[in-house]
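Transporter, hydrophobe/amphiphile efflux-1 (HAE1) family
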Amino acid sequence: MIFSIANTFIKRPVLTTVCTLLILIVGGVCIPLLPLNYLPDIAPIRVQVSASYTGADVETVETAVTTTLERQINGVEGMQYMTSNSSAGSSQISVYFGAQTDKNIAQVNVQNRLARATPRLPTTVQQFGVTAQTSSTSILLVYALYPENNEYDALFISNYIDLNLRDQLLRTPGVGDLTIFGEKQYAMRLWLDPNALASRGLTVTDVATALRSQNILAGAGTLGQSPIPPGQSYEIPLRINGQFKDASEFENLVIQAGSNGNLIKLQDVGRAELGSETYTSNARNNGKPSIGIAIYQSPGSNALDVSKNVQAQMNELMKDFPPGLKAEIVYDTVGFVQASLEEVLKTLVEAIALVVLVIFLFLQNWRATIIPLVAIPVSLIGALAFAYVFRFSLNNLTLFGLILATGLVVDDAIIVVEAIARKVEQGMRPLQASVEAMDELTGAVVSTSLVLMAVFIPVAFFPGSTGKMYQQFALIIAFSIAISTFNALSFSPSISAILLRPPRPARGPLGWFFSRFNRILQWIIEKYLAIVNFLIRIRYAVIGLFVVGLAATYFMFTHVPTGFVPSEDQGIVLGIIQGPDGVALNYTDRVIEKLEQILEKEPEVDNIFATSGFGFAGSGSNRGVFFAKLKPWEERSQPNQTASAILTRINREFATIPEAIITAVSPPPIQGFSTLGGFELQLEDRTNGRLTINDFFANAQAVIAQANQKPALKGGVFTQFTASTPQFQIDFDRTRLEALNIDFQQAVNTLGAAIGSQYVNDFTLGQRSYRVYIQADANYRRSPDDIRRLYVRSANNQMVRLSEVAKITPTTGPSVISHYNGFRAIDIQGREASGYSSGQAIQAMQQAVTEAATPGVGSDWIGTAREELSAGNLGILIFGFGIIMVFLTLAAQYESYIDPAIILLTVPLALLGALSALALRGLVNDVYANVALVMLIGLASKNAILIVEFANQALEEGLTIRQAAITAAQERFRPIVMTSSASLLGFFPLVIATGAGSASRWSLGTALFGGLLVATILSLLIVPVLYVIIKNLEERFLKKKPAKPSQPPSPDGNNDGQSRAMPTPVGDPTRTTNAHQHSSVIIKQNADDNRSNDSSN
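Tokens:
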């Protein structure tokens, strides 16, 4: 039945064009429906748990909040791992799930676990609440809002964002969360004078008590509400002004009424101010005070769609900005994605143009060229319809697949057109030529396509995030091949029957060029045949060289550095700032000013946004981050203008700033795995408390020092953790407290409210409720002496200085305590040194941990490093599985295990070429290179198939093994060179790529170009030799020898194998081929290689 398909389409050209147009229309409709992305969505799902414990120190938050929550969350269904940060007053826990997990179910499962833990949390924590929400670890966009001419302060801008932007942005489809850099949300601050309070016999807690009793929301009911006496004709609700509305009303708060009628009000012991809820961070944009909005996408959403939605929303919101308020994008990961996809599309167009050029060069006939040309858009656009059905995105990998498929999808069309054109040249009518050619070729077209698809389809069944990356690439090629096969059975023969005509010699410059080209090609063929004859004569030496090549392949495989995905120039530089422990926020602000001066000297830096008091690994007054946006890629074409070169320069300059450690890094190569580029290692204390935090930190420093001595790391390893933040230990003398009749809790509350602030209740401003805080004014909480001068009141109303009942001792401790899967952990970050791969860096880091870690201290990788390690063996498995599938497919096709072995022996040669090309360019064997290696299985096998099948057919005609091999080499030289040249030129734009995303294209293109080039050259030389050797061994040991007929010796005196007929001289033009008894792969690409003057018109 399959053989009748082509005849049906040949006889029904209208049906043929309808089917082709349907493929184009359906695929074209699906193109705008495909989401755009840089890579498939492989990032883990993160559920972020947040809790607040105002006034609590780090270790109290760790033990009372974080550990309590972790013990309940641990083991939630689908969880991969869990990290947490405990800092003064807050706890943040991140629970990670696999990319395939339903984010809503993951969030609900975590919330159910939190519900069990909430009753065990301190009352203050329960008052604030514990939240859980899904969000990405990577920032998608950062907007900076700033005054054009200093018209507005940060407090106004921050609250403008809160009132007018936050809710609208959070409602934008795909937005998961927002972080406000430099946030200063409105709050009523009651700044108290502890001395004035003490002189009146009052404490801070008295102010809180008065505030709770006088600033309240209360309902007074309704007059006339049922049940009522008969005749009541109205019902009127009552309203009470229970809350204070502004600072002046708060200053009239009555704290105490004296016996003589005197009132002590807040204004007598302090002041009220509409201020900020927190004063722990600042932000600057190009040196101007600013507020930043960091936008995180929701897991599973499409980055480009979310960015587009957010920017559209912001453009609408900006229309209502007050005069002088400006907004600017200062960090944009999507710009890189868009630019990268545009570059890949440009590469695709270049590849198509080069492939068409090669086709025309070899076919030398514009009519014959049009037919394979049509196969390209039909196959590629049609494949996108399948991509939509399978819910793929239009990303780098799918576009790479289309680029690589460009060289494959024309092959079948070329085969068909060549076979039909040859018959037309022999005098057949085009219709008859099409029918006869397809009778010969249909089976072979299908079987060859099955061989190629056997490489790619099994990849679809590999699990995990990395498997998902391979799946989209492999299946898009398989879809393209499937459609190209259908096209070769339908459109190509049908249109050939209409378009092809007997050729006429080309004239003019084109005819002259084709004549010269054909003569040169014929000369190359003659030299090639002489070389093949020579290699067959010294075949055992060739086998020795082949074995050396296998050894070289193994050597290259084990010595070419490995990686996950290359670090790209994303047009952004991130940086982290860490000042000395214990410094104030304005100290970090001064460091940022120096940092800005360095960045402003870089002409490639377009914008600088920095924030103090915020860190990716936890907040603190000594921490900060910055985002430096670079100029567009087309304006940075020189080697010293790349992001990598800029990083090297500015890090060298940052080292000259003694006030802080400043490190500039790249963004993460894959969004959603981490916030920064490089690797992250969690060093874990598994000693069950036997190590103090200081001992653990000392061991972490030893590990880091050991790692920084490794050449692959070379000083690039660091941690933001510190255990030496200056602190004061307050020890209350409980015996003394009891003797003076002072309640311990009241003493602690007095200290906490005065120094650390205390949230009491709320007030209403506009339609929103804001918090009211009490705290000692700034001049009364600057030094330990201010603590000692605080007063507490005893039960008999005696005022007692805190210095009489408490001892203040200087100490040190961590500002943030991290956990990994419940263990105390220190996050170690780093990146590979110049000239080394991420795989080498990971290996060096693991060695450092083994060498320097204390017994009981373990480690685990997170982020992209974790994914790279989990993907380590997957590439080898996919490659091995591809080899097995091709072998089995070929064995079934040939009914032999010998011929597939000959064919697949060319694959190591392709690997040698690919790995050597990577090594020569200083590239690594990463995911993209692995994709190329899988692709090379099919490409190398296809070339060998052409030779082996034709040689088998020649054997059936009666040639000796040696003659069959030489004949096959001669006949298949032109088709192999033609199809390989088309593929090589299709890959070449990847090799020389520039602009956004060029590193990934280099990796893929270099491996493919080098592998196919070497495979083409060596398979043309080695396959005939292997064929002679292996077929002779098969004749000698596996087949029963027939009686030897009388025959003259071969011209060189050798008879390799037995002949069933008198051999025909190689190249004899009178030799004919019985196509119906041959494997059609041979026939379908058998053009008349002696043709030199085909029609060009």
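The first strand starts at residue 45 and ends at 52.
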